[in-house]
Design goal:
The structure is a homodimer.
Chain A lengths: L9 E2 L9 E2 H17 L3 E2 L5 E3 L1 H4 L4 H5 L2 E4 L5 E4 L4 H10 L8 E5 L2 E3 L11 E10 L4 H17 L7 E7 H10 L7 H9 L6 H10 L4 H10 L4 H12 L6 E3 L13 E7 L8 E5 L3 H5 L8 E7 H10 L12 E4 L6 H13 L4 E3 L6 H10 L4 E7 L5 E7 L5 E5 H10 L4
Parallel strand pairs in A: 1-2, 3-7, 10-11, 15-16, 15-17
Antiparallel strand pairs in A: 4-6, 5-6, 7-9, 8-9, 9-14, 10-12, 12-13, 13-14, 17-18, 18-19
Chain lengths: 421, 421
């Protein structure tokens, strides 16, 4: 029986094949996402992986709607597996808005889904760090959020040589659009063309822009000038004060595909330009009002950072640690009459927080020792009877090959003292 | 816009209403599940939340099939949201069996789904700790797994006064069934009746058993005698050696509903008998062979522990800590000309691992201080210019109200030294 196309199994390391996904690397990324967000004072939330189809269809726009993983449930409801987290967050905030002091700083680690024609290697799910600030319209919030994005990547040992945040603004494009007499009802179409500039031929871009009353040349001049608006300058200055200036650059070719963005927008890219965007986000000051049917009106902004591109980048830069699941202690049981005492000791060490394993069934000494090595145990521990028939413990450090014979209580104490090594 | 019935949103604490679910309590439980499993040498894995319907329909049996959350995807495939993790694990193991040394000890923290008539308060999803040992047929593996179950609950500060593991065996029931001349093709029906004994009236039980050629009286005698089989005695002795004897008891009224169990089965209950089972599991020596179409044949066993009943129990026993998301430092910015320097300091402290927040925008001193208190900051930090126009830092401990004025570097150093408090 096979797993569904586009979905992933996650295995413990060492992985039997290079093309398998590592549960350990996933957890490593999750831990860093969580820790960094918390350092910034963000609090964790989560919603259901399933929502009503309606929650997404009118709000997200563009690519996301075309690729929704939706279906009818047994009650004939129209359901969608969440393609993004922001509408869920807006729904949750709208429901209990008054109970949380503003600005609200929240994060989540959702699994997100899409359904598109299955192509080789194309995934139908991924995980994302989602971080959002709600209830603050000042650009200082945008800077705080971009700083979190940068520090999340830095916590994984990526540097300014590895990635860059390209900062842009829907407001800048809105002004441009108005100054060039764009028609109000075509503004989102215009943004869609800008969003795809890099992916299309110049002729196609020229044609599409002409249909909307623009020339590719004037668009390119605007992008190349890259003059920060007053709002973006505030963000740049704020990031500079934190010493993060080298991680960010104005780039108006970024505009983001989603319909609901209203202010600053940004994407993080690898400097070599080999990968898709590592993260992206922006301001969506009208979404909560839209989702709540006008009941709650709060400015908001957020970003999402996916696990797939990030993992590729960390691999390419050699920044993933080895996840060998090393044991602190492997308990050798060579004398079966000492199994009960060994189990008691194993229990004692585990209760103290040590990672301990042993052979569940009687096995030859060399087989047990081999198993200890396979499991990358730091130490082996073996109970023995001394000549005086007293019970003693032999502790061996597998790397230094140092060996000690101690009283049982003494051995336990010494091993516990080394918790965390 | 509403969330789907039977699904949960998880909010950060303090919760605005008692009936909301806490993201912090969820994470607290997840952390303890993960840490305890690792101490036992279990490694983490995960599979997709969606699988082919087929993976579950022929293997699980009983209640699970009747409540499958299944649907047709856009490609007309029959899909199910996973109702349990074991078939996914069996599928994953079967695919890469040779690459992992036996016994394999794996755990996962999946979200599981079911679809039944929506009743008030009935959930359609929950989270589970799933722990499994694969490739070991000896009862020592059963004992290791039950010990993990017990220690997982103990890590959450539950004691033998709070819960009990009821240990039983399909083998014991199989022997009983044969000794009483049960018909082979009715054996699973018989198990289903035993599984529901507690939930039905004696008359109903008597009737159902009679139809299968048994009397309720002989069944009750067998249950009340509670004589451990040789296999169960090994498990009891093993647990006793670990000092866990008081947490476990033979109870043949436990038999488990799933079709695929083959040996020991067990369930953990609260001692007061107020809640549904906290956890349950057993041996399923034939499932991997079944799932792999005969290619891989490995003995296996596992248990699942859900988050919902566990949370109820922890609440009832007052064992949930307060999750106030306390800050290490709240930085007060009363002099806007010092905002840049304050941001630099905030950045420095966060990089050192401290949880730090500040007012994103200019605000009155008392408002900022109130915010620091709301966020339960341990300390406030404020940059000031001294009379000699030097920059100094005032650090205030909010509980003791102790206050110190230090050089900026000195203040940073002192705060960093207190990381983790």
């Amino acid at each position: 029986m096979e797993r569904l196309p586009g979905f992933r199994d996650f295995y413990p390391e060492p992985l039997p094949h290079q093309d398998l996904w590592s549960a350990d690397a996933r957890q490593y990324i999750f831990d860093h996402w969580r820790t960094t967000a918390k350092r910034y004072g963000f609090r964790e939330y989560d919603g259901p992986p399933l929502e009503t189809l309606e929650l997404f269809t009118t709000k997200s726009g563009g690519e996301i709607i075309g690729q929704l993983y939706n279906f009818k449930d047994k009650g004939e409801r129209d359901i969608a597996l969440r393609p993004e987290m922001t509408p869920t967050l807006a729904r949750m905030i709208a429901a209990h808005e008054r109970s949380y002091k503003k600005p609200v700083k929240w994060f989540a680690l959702p699994q997100l889904f899409r359904y598109e024609r299955a192509q080789k290697g194309r995934l139908r799910e991924h995980f994302q760090l989602n971080a959002d600030i709600i209830g603050e319209s000042a650009a200082a919030a945008d800077a705080e959020l971009v700083a979190l994005l940068i520090d999340t990547l830095r916590s994984l040992r990526l540097t300014e040589a590895d990635f860059l945040v390209r900062l842009s603004s829907r407001n800048a494009w809105h002004d441009f659009f108005q100054q060039h007499q764009g028609k109000l009802e075509q503004e989102y179409d215009f943004y869609q063309v800008i969003d795809k500039l890099d992916r299309e031929e110049p002729e196609t871009n020229q044609e599409k822009l002409a249909a909307l009353g623009f020339s590719l040349a004037e668009v390119m001049v605007f992008i190349e000038k890259a003059e920060p608006t007053a709002e973006l300058q505030v963000i740049l200055d704020n990031l500079a004060a934190r010493g993060l200036h080298d991680y960010v650059k104005i780039d108006y070719s970024v505009i983001r595909g989603l319909a609901y963005y209203t202010g600053s927008v940004f994407e993080a890219f690898d400097r070599k330009g080999e990968l898709r965007a590592i993260a992206g986000g922006g301001r969506y000051d009208n979404l909560i009002k839209l989702i709540s049917g006008g009941k709650v009106n709060l400015p908001a902004l957020g970003f999402g950072m996916g696990d797939v591109v990030l993992l590729e980048l960390l691999k390419a830069r050699g920044l993933l640690p080895k996840f060998d699941g090393a044991l602190d202690v492997f308990c050798l049981i060579e004398d079966e009459s000492l199994r009960r005492d060994s189990l008691k000791l194993v229990q004692d060490l585990r209760e103290a927080g040590l990672v301990v394993d042993y052979s569940l069934t009687p096995a030859k000494p060399d087989k047990q020792f081999k198993r200890a090595q396979e499991l990358r145990a730091a130490r082996t521990l073996k109970l023995e009877r001394s000549a005086a028939s007293e019970m003693v413990a032999r502790v061996k450090h597998l790397q230094t090959r140092e060996e000690q014979t101690l009283g049982v209580a003494e051995a336990a104490k010494s091993l516990k003292a080394g918790v965390g090594r």
